[in-house]
């Protein structure tokens, strides 16, 4: 696997080595040994999958400590724009984001460490999205910031009038009204 560093330390894109022939393709989607060596030592404990249609926007979500989660995400069908926003107080990149298009064709994965809010927008007719988490989900630790917060400067590539959000995601505060539970000194 090739690790592509981004503008925010710790947030990386993972590009697999794909073997194609007349039968189709093969690639190793995850190797604990390689991940530990090339990204960071981690133990994933939960896998999740969602299916969504064009215009669905999910996020920007995170889990509060002590249940904070790192995520390794990928799109196995369709295409999504995936985004990580730094919400670590005191971080030189606080409020900044990294966006990457994940598709069934490029097979890329995106690693989002603890201390980041995460969200995605579906760019294709439908998309199947998978993610590994290094901590179990806890409802009481659920948190979020507004996926439509214009101050974040995210181009979701979905016209606002076509965006489909859950009721929960419409109620998250914008970044300026948000009190982060994460401190850069903890990472």
From TrEMBL:
One Gene Ontology molecular-function label: dTDP-4-dehydrorhamnose 3,5-epimerase activity
Reaction equation(s) it catalyzes: dTDP-4-dehydro-6-deoxy-alpha-D-glucose = dTDP-4-dehydro-beta-L-rhamnose
Classification via InterPro entries: RmlC-like, RmlC-like_jellyroll, RmlC_Cupin_sf
Pathway it works in: Carbohydrate biosynthesis; dTDP-L-rhamnose biosynthesis
A Pfam family matched in the record: dTDP_sugar_isom
Top EC class of this enzyme: isomerase
GO cellular component: cytosol
Residues the record marks as active site: 61, 131
Example GO biological process: dTDP-rhamnose biosynthetic process
Enzyme Commission number, as recorded: 5.1.3.13
Site, Participates in a stacking interaction with the thymidine ring of dTDP-4-oxo-6-deoxyglucose: residue positions: 137
Family: Belongs to the dTDP-4-dehydrorhamnose 3,5-epimerase family.
Assembly: Homodimer.
Descriptive protein name: dTDP-4-dehydrorhamnose 3,5-epimerase
Higher taxonomy: Bacteria, Pseudomonadati, Bacteroidota, Bacteroidia, Bacteroidales
Gene responsible for this protein: rfbC
């Amino acid at each position: 696997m090739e690790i592509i560093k981004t503008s925010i330390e710790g947030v990386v894109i993972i590009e697999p080595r794909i073997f194609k022939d007349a039968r189709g393709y093969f690639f190793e989607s995850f190797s604990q040994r390689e991940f530990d060596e090339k990204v960071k030592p981690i133990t994933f404990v939960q896998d999740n999958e969602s299916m969504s249609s064009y215009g669905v926007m999910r996020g920007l979500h995170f889990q509060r400590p002590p249940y904070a989660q790192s995520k390794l995400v990928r799109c196995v069908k369709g295409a999504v724009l995936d985004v990580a926003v730094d919400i670590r107080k005191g971080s030189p990149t606080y409020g900044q984001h990294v966006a990457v298009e994940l598709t069934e064709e490029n097979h890329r994965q995106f690693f989002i460490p603890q201390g980041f809010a995460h969200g995605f927008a579906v760019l294709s007719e439908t998309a199947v999205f998978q993610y590994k988490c290094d901590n179990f989900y806890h409802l009481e630790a659920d948190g979020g910031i507004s996926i439509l917060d214009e101050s974040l400067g995210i181009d979701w590539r979905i016209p606002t009038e076509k965006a489909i959000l859950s009721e929960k995601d419409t109620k998250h505060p914008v970044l300026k009204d948000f009190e982060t539970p994460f401190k850069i000194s903890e990472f």
